[in-house]
């Protein structure tokens, strides 16, 4: 019995709509399977020849496409690729910090570090009356990694040699250098030959530093003088005391010692004492086997402070009034004032005015 072509076409169309295979005969099933295989090879969904996709299958297909897209976006390959595209800025942070730090660390006048530095300076005054005669307006700490490492290394070597704790104790000394040499000293350290003092040793093989912060030069400061003072962190190590009357050409750096001090330093009690500046100096040197190092490692620049000398209260006062009781020509007693910048004895004033006019002084 021949098949009706219209019935076959109707059966295919009903299969596409309902999705149920034909129950009669095996040819329809074979054709359906062949059609499905051909559709799979072409990348189409199995269905009828008219290409109409059921709504449920279209919805499922869209869901699968979205799922595939989300899976591909969250794959490890895409994550690693996105991480590689991010800028790597973490490696530049330490470098920027070092550049910002620099050689100097400026201390604001209202900071606690500034106050501690001023207290440190005032604790090294020789004369107690120096308090109030200096004003400090600018301070900065020195950060020199090379010199600080050498200072620590020198201390470690001295400790390994069995030095006493007193020899390893840290202290401070001071220097009032030329303005042109300040930057060089802060960067390279204090080298031998920076001065001409010969009291404690040859200046070409050692360095001189001031023990007191108010005694920075041979001559006293004039009122209004200003400049920059370098504070050094030092270790005196093993000290050798030198007589002041020893011939200058015979004083040489002593092996197994680190510092020379004058035996007469304790006799200096005033800024105006005889040779006060020279006798209170401290002389540092360092031996390297049989040679002298050009820069002692136990002397390290610590801070720079700008100062101005205001002078004593008597010198700072503009005028001082001296009162004298006088007798007028009419015989009445009056008051006579003489103003002078500096205190002058009464007897000197009498001779000063006796050449021009007669002044009768009523001196009891």
Automatic annotation (TrEMBL):
Gene3D superfamilies (UniProt xref): 3.90.228.10
Domain annotation TASOR pseudo-PARP: ranges: 157-301
UniProt KW Iron keyword: no
Compositionally biased spans, kind Low complexity: 72-81
Signal peptide annotation: none
Chain segments annotated as transmembrane: 336-361
Region named Disordered: 1-94
Keyword Glycoprotein: no
Keywords assigned by UniProt, alphabetized: Membrane, Transmembrane, Transmembrane helix
Matching PANTHER family: PROTEIN TASOR (PTHR16207:SF1), SET DOMAIN-CONTAINING PROTEIN (PTHR16207)
Protein name (record): TASOR pseudo-PARP domain-containing protein
Organism this protein belongs to: Characodon lateralis
């Amino acid at each position: 019995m021949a098949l009706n072509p219209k019935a076959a076409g109707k059966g295919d169309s009903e299969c596409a709509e309902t999705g149920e295979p034909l129950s009669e005969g095996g040819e329809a099933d074979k054709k359906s399977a062949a059609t499905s295989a051909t559709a799979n090879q072409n990348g189409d969904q199995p269905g009828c020849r008219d290409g109409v996709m059921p709504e449920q299958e279209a919805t499922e297909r869209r869901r699968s496409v979205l799922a595939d897209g989300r899976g591909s976006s969250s794959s490890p390959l895409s994550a690693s690729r996105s991480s590689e595209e991010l800028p790597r800025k973490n490696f530049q942070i330490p470098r920027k910090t070092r550049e910002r730090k620099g050689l100097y660390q400026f201390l604001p006048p209202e900071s606690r570090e500034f106050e501690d530095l001023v207290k440190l300076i005032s604790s090294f005054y020789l004369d107690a009356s120096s308090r109030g005669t200096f004003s400090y307006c600018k301070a900065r700490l020195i950060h020199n990694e090379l010199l600080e490492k050498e200072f620590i290394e020198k201390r470690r070597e001295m400790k390994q040699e069995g030095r006493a704790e007193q020899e390893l104790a840290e202290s401070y000394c001071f220097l009032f250098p030329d303005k042109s040499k300040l930057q060089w000293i802060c960067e390279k350290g204090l080298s031998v030959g920076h001065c001409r003092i010969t009291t404690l040793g040859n200046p070409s093989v050692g360095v001189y530093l001031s023990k007191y912060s108010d005694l920075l030069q041979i001559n006293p400061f004039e009122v209004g003088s200003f400049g920059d003072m370098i504070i050094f962190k030092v270790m005196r190590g093993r000290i050798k005391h030198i007589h002041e009357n020893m011939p200058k050409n015979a004083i040489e750096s002593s092996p197994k010692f680190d510092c020379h001090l004058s035996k007469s330093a304790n006799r200096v009690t005033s800024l105006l004492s005889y040779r006060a500046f020279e006798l209170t100096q401290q002389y540092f040197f360092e031996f390297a086997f049989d040679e002298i190092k050009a820069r002692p490692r136990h002397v390290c620049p610590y801070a720079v402070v700008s100062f101005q000398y205001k002078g004593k209260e008597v010198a700072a006062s503009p005028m001082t009034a001296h009162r004298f009781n006088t007798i007028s020509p009419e015989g009445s007693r009056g008051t006579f004032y003489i103003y002078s910048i500096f205190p002058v004895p009464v007897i000197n004033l009498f001779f000063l005015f006796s050449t021009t006019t007669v002044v009768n002084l009523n001196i009891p």
